[in-house]
């Protein structure tokens, strides 16, 4: 295993741990954005700032205003002095198409994820934008 792959696996493990911050019941997703070997942002799925920390409604359906981990990580950079141009996104679950659009526009150049999702349209969009996509299935503990 080369050095890059070791780092990729390590950051993915961190993203997985970061997902534990999510108070969502149905699915917990974590994301890290790394640039020049620095973690410049992080995110997990959840409601916007100032909203109740509950993701699901009474019928256990995810509320429409829940932000995905990738969207939280990217928008966090928008409020910082940093920028995501040329960065790598590590995310536990494969990005959906809505997040794929944000990833492209944020100038992210690599996406590494650990869990394949039924819908592949997000990954396909990233590939169309020539973003390097790497799937590293992590062994379940
Ligand atoms: Zn998404």
Q: What are the salient characteristics of this protein?
A:
alpha/beta, 30% helix, 21% strand, dCMP_deaminase-rel, CMP deaminase, Deoxycytidylate_deaminase_dom, dCMP deaminase activity, hydrolase
TL;DR?
With 141 residues, this protein is α/β, with parallel strands linked by helices. It has a single domain (3-135), classed as 3-Layer(aba) Sandwich (Cytidine Deaminase, domain 2), CATH 3.40.140. Helices cover 30% and strands 21% of the residues.
Fold and architecture overview:
The chain is α/β, with parallel strands linked by helices and 141 residues long. It has one domain: Cytidine Deaminase, domain 2 (3-Layer(aba) Sandwich). Helix content is 30%, strand content 21%. A hairpin with a 2-residue loop joins β1 and β2 (38-44). The longest helix is centred in the N-terminal third of the chain and has 16 residues, at 3-18. The two termini are 21 Å apart. The active site is at residue 70. Pfam families: dCMP_cyt_deam_1. InterPro entries: APOBEC/CMP_deaminase_Zn-bd, CMP_dCMP_dom, Cytidine_deaminase-like, dCMP_deaminase, dCMP_deaminase-rel, Deoxycytidylate_deaminase_dom.
